[in-house]
Write a structure and sequence with these properties.
The protein has 294 residues and is α+β, with helices and mostly antiparallel strands. The protein has one domain. The protein contains six helices and eleven strands. The strands form two sheets. Strands 1-7-8-9-10-6-5-4 form an eight-stranded mixed β-sheet, with helices on one face. The protein is elongated and about 95 Å long. It starts with a helix and ends in a 6-residue tail after the last strand.
């Protein structure tokens, strides 16, 4: 009986030791778990961070400059919304009437070298400005004609006075360089921030950026909108809309690429108006005065 009790006592001691050992192992495992899990999380975070860094670096190498030009163009457009305007073709002008048979002959307006006709009656009052002449009509309309000799030959100056910039111009246009001032203005005014993209080719992004800078430097003479026209003897751009009642400015180029600028306004306090047909009529009748009549 005593021997049996001794064995039972030994068994209880062994079991207690086993339980204690098991508890010790569990406690040790629990203590280790918090220290092992952060190691795995930190390794995963490091890998994710490395992937993100590589992705950003790759994007910057491939599209970094495009992104900068895109953001810059949007900022310019926010400051000058007219940069988003591109030339919209005007409808063809109405044919000129046979002026020799007209009952009410249009008024001739003359400068020292040029002349044009207007559809309004009466001789205008001439106001001579440093580089222009303003013709004021009794009916309220006013036309300012800028001296063609004072208009910049942008393309010619680049070729003759600044060959380095002309070479840059060739690079910008990728070989398809404008051959006339009209083509230069056409390409520049056709540029718009809306044409920019984050993923466009780098050469296209740089070209668009330069074109927008030139567009800002060329400026806009009136608003809203830009319209273009290409007629038999004249082509160019119209800024503003006659139907809105505000000023309308024009840059006109003849077949010899000479530039002419007009500004049509209605004087304050008058009931005068002008239409698109009136503007078209003036441009269509622009011509040099014969040498013997100057």
């Amino acid at each position: 009986m005593q021997g049996r009790d001794n064995r039972s006592a030994r068994n209880r001691i062994q079991m207690a030791g086993t339980i204690q050992t098991t508890e010790s192992l569990l406690a040790e495992g629990i203590q280790r778990m918090p220290t092992e899990k952060p190691k795995k999380d930190s390794s995963r975070e490091a890998i994710i961070l490395l992937v993100v860094v590589l992705a950003v670096a790759g994007y910057c190498i491939r599209y970094g400059l495009q992104t900068l030009t895109y953001i810059e163009a949007k900022m310019w457009a926010r400051t000058d919304p007219w940069l988003n305007d591109v030339p919209v073709p005007l409808p063809p002008p109405a044919p000129l009437p046979d002026l020799s048979k007209a009952k009410d002959k249009p008024t001739f307006v003359k400068t020292s070298e040029w002349e044009f006709r207007v559809p309004w009656k009466g001789e205008p009052k001439e106001v001579h400005l440093p580089t222009a002449i303003e013709f004021q009509f009794d009916s309220g309309q006013s036309i300012t004609f800028y001296d063609p000799n004072e208009q910049a030959d942008s393309l010619g100056q680049l070729k003759k006075l600044n060959p380095l910039n002309y070479e840059k111009l060739t690079n910008v246009f990728q070989g398809a360089i404008p051959q006339t001032n009209y083509e230069l203005y056409r390409d520049v005014y056709s540029a718009s921030p809306t044409q920019m993209s984050l993923f466009m080719p780098l050469s296209d992004a740089m070209r668009a950026n330069v074109m927008l800078l030139w567009k800002i430097s060329f400026g806009v003479d009136a608003q809203p909108g830009i319209r273009s026209f290409e007629w038999q003897k004249a082509r160019g751009f119209e800024f503003g809309d006659p139907s809105k009642g505000g000023p309308v400015a024009l840059r006109v180029f003849d077949n010899q690429d000479r530039q002419f600028r007009f500004l049509f306004v209605t004087r304050a306090g008058t009931q005068g108006t002008f239409t698109q047909d009136d503007v078209d009529f003036v441009i269509q009748t622009l011509q040099p005065i014969p040498f013997e009549e100057r």
